[in-house]
Structure formats: structure tokens, C-alpha cells
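Hi F.,

I've been meaning to write this up properly since the lab meeting, where we talked about keeping a consistent format for the predictions we share between groups. The idea is simple: the sequence comes first, exactly as it goes in, then the C-alpha cells exactly as they come out, then a line or two of notes. No screenshots and no reformatting. I'm using this chain as the first example so we have something concrete to point to.
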Amino acid sequence: MAEQDVSRRKFLVRAAVGAGAVAGAGLPEVSALSPPQTGEASAQAQQRPHGEAHGAFFNHDDAATVAAFTERLMPGAPGKAGAAGKAGALDAGVLNYIDLALAGAYADQQDFYRRGLAQLDRYCREKYQEPFVRLSAARQDEVIAALEEGKAAGFAYPTAREFFNTLREHTMEGMFADPVYGGNKDFAGWRLVGFPGAQPIFTTADMQNKQTFTREPIIGLQAQAGKR
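Output, unedited:
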């Protein structure tokens, strides 16, 4: 795994720990995020990378771009010597989180995303003659660095830095917020930072123990629904 990937993961993980891993203020309401799809709307749901459905807000091309972008912000790390790998944005369902949020509580940012993604596509095609998703990981990182530093040409609204900051913030939310909002799939983000999630009973020993909490997170609403 490249040094840049490692440092980026460490930054986001440290930020999540500092924020308590699950800063929930301002997160979308469940009812706003998950309107039931039936009939034609359900049938038209497109396929995301890795086989997950999308279509609450993003079309296929925009979904692929956001999936690639967020994975570069929070890249997965393969396991070494038999150890389990570390989840990245794709594993944690960050794309699903952002897609649902933009169809619900973050609907006021739909135009922001449309314009930002269009500007990103233009910038990549003019500089590299390819869209973002077709660039190598190294070139994708160059693009992201240019956005972060405000050096990417052709951005008006949102500015390059505004677009980067928003995508990074939403990636953090999708990684570490409660799974009920559509991200943090299988508690991937919580496991990454050692956050136990909601537990029905914390023993006296649990409360006094200063070591990393290793008990499995309590099963989430999504997992319960899937078993019915």
C-alpha cells in the first residue's frame, strides 16, 4: 500500500477517533434517507461498482466517479501475512450513504454535486484526456491534491477546494456514522477505530477498562431487517 494511502487513512481515522467516531449532529434522518422503492422505480435501480444498487440520486457515471474518489480518500488496505484487511470507502458503503443523503436530508446539495462532478470531469479530460474513473491511482491522487490545494482549473461553483472538502466530509460520515444511515457497512468504520457501537449492557469492568474494546458491535437495524 502506497505511503500516501497509509497517511490518508491515518488522518481520517485519527479525525474519526477525535470526533468520537460517530458524530451524529446534522446527519440525515432515516425516514428521509430511505424512501421505499417499488415497481418501476425499484426495477430501474442501476448497478453500482461491487454489485450494490444505486439510483436514489446518482446516475451510473456519477456513482462510479464518487465511488472512485471516495476510495482514494479512504483506500482499503489488504491484509498481510494472513491478517484481515482494513476496510476502505467501497467496503463501508460510502457511496450508498452519499447517494441516499443527497436524495433526502442533503437534497439542498444536489446542484452542488452535479456542478462539482461536471467540473471534475472537464478538468480530468482537459488535463489527462480521460475521465477521473479511468485515471491511474497516482493520477487520481494528483487530481485530488489539486482540488485540495485549490489549484484545479475550471472550477467556479463549487470551487475546487469546496468540492474536495465536502466530499471528504461526506466520506467521513459514510465511514463512521451509524450504519442505519446507509454507510459504515457491517460496522467497517467502527471496527477500524475500535468503537463498540451501542451495547445493551456495559459492565463495571467495561466502563473502567482503558484497553481497546473488542466485543462485537450490537447488530444494526439493517442487519436485523435482512434476517426477517
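Notes:
The chain is about 50% helix and 0% strand.
The longest strand covers residues 46-47.

If this format works for you, I'll send the rest the same way.

G.
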